[in-house]
Design brief:
The protein is of the alpha/beta class. It has 3 domains: 10-80, Arc Repressor Mutant, subunit A (Orthogonal Bundle), CATH 1.10.10; 83-214 and 395-413, 2-Layer Sandwich (Nucleotidyltransferase, domain 5); 226-388, ATPase, nucleotide binding domain (Nucleotidyltransferase, domain 5, 2-Layer Sandwich), CATH 3.30.420. The protein is 42% helix and 16% strand. The protein has helices spanning 10-28, 33-40, 44-56, 123-148, 192-198, 212-223, 282-285, 287-293, 297-303, 305-317, 321-345, 355-358, 360-377, 394-409; strands spanning 60-62, 78-80, 85-92, 96-103, 108-115, 158-166, 206-211, 230-236, 240-246, 249-250, 349-354, 384-386.
């Protein structure tokens, strides 16, 4: 994703500076104004004015005087008020909306799973379902906050941003258009953000749409316990998606489709794919393909993916010949994709997420065998293939992190607190 251009007008500069102050306090607070000024490069007088603005919005609190033991006037530490604003993430899957709400400190205050039975190719109906969830979150916010905080009074929370994560490339433009989502039957571009916003009362909360695997990839990158400059996520859910993180940044390409490994051809004469090509990775390692190869196609069609997945794991645990062969075929296809991706991008970490993480113990022997030749030729590359550190929560964790950073960078989206009523009124 391209960096945001520098602001050019006074209002934009002030919004940016508000974000500089709030992000520093979120990352390094509590600390006095002098430290904020030194860290951000802003003049002390500017910091004082910005702190007053953020305090009026209920986003900061000034503590009692801190006795530092050094000469000079003692500082009064400033700290983030995390409960003033909340952010929400909504992950769209073929069968559910997975929802999480967190405060600005990153503390998750609510989770839920909302089933849906929407027909493929109905983005308007999906927008209806997502808007209904957003409206319910806004109504329920005071209850979420009360359940997770202590008895001290806090400003009334507001929902400051919602991030929708779904399978399908999302163009990094003003409309954040879902370019195509074959697994949902969306074969034409969909302006999902506009559809959801139109269904919310004005003024509507800020909505962002991101690719679900990009969100998970960034969350996994930040969760790594060792140095890595490049990570590729390959994730099986509704189909096969993925994300590419290089030097700490998601790369989406010119049209939002970079890091979509599901439609990398891995067999020149393979089966026809819905994308128009042949032999794509999803045709061999996608959930539908694996369930069909394992003899579970009817179960998938009649009872859904969860039932098919439970039965597949049971068959694998009994070393069922057909199920094991299905996973071996998927592993060989994944190996071909991994060799191609890492040769092009020089990534040193490949994470297999979603259903692939559940199948990891059956996939990894064949994958390691196919990678052995490349490793022997160039042992210094040290390519690692691992299951995810965050499990099934990676997408929501990444989407919440995106939303939280967006609010901390532009805290002007949080309205000022209502003026206190005069005494005796």
């Amino acid at each position: 994703m391209d960096p945001t251009p520098p602001p050019t007008d006074a209002a934009a500069i002030r919004r940016r500076n508000l974000g500089l102050v709030l992000r520093h306090l979120a990352d390094h607070g509590p600390c006095p104004r002098t430290e904020v000024a030194a860290a951000t490069g802003l003049a002390h007088g500017s910091v004082t004015a910005l702190v007053a603005d953020l305090t009026d919005r209920g986003l900061l609190r000034e503590d009692d005087v801190l006795r530092s033991g050094t000469r000079g006037r003692p500082g009064r530490p400033l700290r983030l008020e995390p409960c003033r604003a909340a952010v929400a993430a909504i992950q769209i899957t073929s069968e559910h909306l997975r929802v999480a709400v967190s405060d600005l400190g990153g503390g998750v205050v609510h989770r839920e799973v909302v089933p849906h039975d929407l027909a493929p190719g109905t983005p308007e109906a999906m927008a209806d379902a997502v808007a209904a969830v957003v409206a319910r979150i806004e109504t329920s916010l005071p209850g979420f906050a009360a359940a997770e905080t202590d008895s001290d009074p806090h400003p009334a929370p507001v929902l400051a941003r919602v991030v929708i994560a779904m399978a399908g490339p999302v163009r990094d433009d003003a409309a954040q258009t879902v370019v195509v989502a074959p697994d949902f039957g969306w074969m034409e571009p969909v302006r999902l953000r506009a559809l959801v916003t139109a269904r919310l009362p004005a003024p509507a909360v800020a909505i962002d749409v991101v690719n679900d695997a990009n969100a998970a990839a960034l969350a996994e990158f930040h969760a790594l316990q060792h140095d890595s400059r490049g990570l590729v996520l390959i994730e099986a859910g509704t189909g096969i998606g993925g994300g590419v993180v290089l030097d700490g940044r998601i790369h989406t390409g010119s049209h939002g489709i970079a890091g979509e490994p599901g439609h990398i051809p891995v067999a020149m004469d393979g089966p026809a794919c819905v994308c128009g090509a042949r032999g794509c990775l999803v045709c061999f390692a996608g959930p539908e393909a694996v369930f069909e190869a394992a003899g579970l196609g009817e179960l998938l069609r009649h009872k859904g993916s969860q039932a098919a997945q439970a039965e597949l794991l049971a068959l694998l645990s009994r070393a069922d010949t057909r199920a094991v062969a299905a996973l071996d075929n998927a592993a060989r296809a994944l190996s071909t994709a991994i060799l191609s991706i890492t040769a092009l991008l020089d990534a040193d970490e490949v994470v297999l997420g979603g259903l692939l993480s559940d199948w990891f113990r059956w996939l990894i022997p064949a994958i390691e065998s196919r990678l052995a030749g490349r490793r022997a030729l160039a042992p210094a590359l040290a390519l690692r293939v691992t299951p995810p550190a965050l499990g099934e929560n990676g997408i929501l964790t990444g989407a919440l992190g995106f939303a939280r950073r967006a609010v901390l960078s532009d805290p002007a989206v949080v309205p000022p607190l209502p003026a206190a009523a005069p005494a005796g009124a």
